[in-house]
Amino acid sequence: MKKFFSEFKEFIMRGNVLDLAVGVIIGAAFQAIVTSLTSDIISPILGIFGGVNFDQFQVTINGATIMYGKFITAVINFLIMAFVIFLIVKLVNKVMSLGKKTEPEEAPTTKKCPFCFSDIDIKATKCPHCTGDIIDLTEKTDDKK
């Protein structure tokens, strides 16, 4: 039983589990903010132009009331949350890329033989595989200039 709790503690203390827990808690709090924004600000403003709040849109069929306005509000909530999360991820990616140093690309050390397509040393003038004479194309094009 002690080994079980030890393994459980190790599992919980891993960084990604804690990060996930923090993300879920912050996400739930953020959802309350977005829901309030949609219900208390956006829906009434849209209601000014439509004459009624989205939450009040409903239709009754055979005694069953379908409150499609609440569904519209939920879709707006989702779109706002998705957009804000997109902006946050984009911002975090930009901040993370600022700290990274780009390594200069190393000069190639090999080239392809034009006859047998084997990799050979960049300075080679004769292919060790097919014994073909390697013409340095950069020198040839420089002569034409």
Automatic annotation (TrEMBL):
Keywords: Cell membrane, Ion channel, Ion transport, Membrane, Transmembrane, Transmembrane helix, Transport. SUPFAM superfamilies: Gated mechanosensitive channel. GO terms for molecular function: mechanosensitive monoatomic ion channel activity. Gene3D superfamilies: Large-conductance mechanosensitive channel, MscL, domain 1 (1.10.1200.120). The chain crosses the membrane at residues 20-51, 71-92. InterPro entries: Mechanosensitive_channel_CS, MS_channel, MSC/AndL, MscL_channel. It is found in: Cell membrane. GO terms for cellular component: plasma membrane. Pfam families: MscL (PF01741). It is a multi-pass membrane protein. It comes from the Bacteria. Homopentamer. NCBIfam families: mscL (TIGR00220). Channel that opens in response to stretch forces in the membrane lipid bilayer. May participate in the regulation of osmotic pressure changes within the cell. PANTHER family: LARGE-CONDUCTANCE MECHANOSENSITIVE CHANNEL (PTHR30266:SF2), MECHANOSENSITIVE CHANNEL MSCL (PTHR30266). This is Large-conductance mechanosensitive channel.
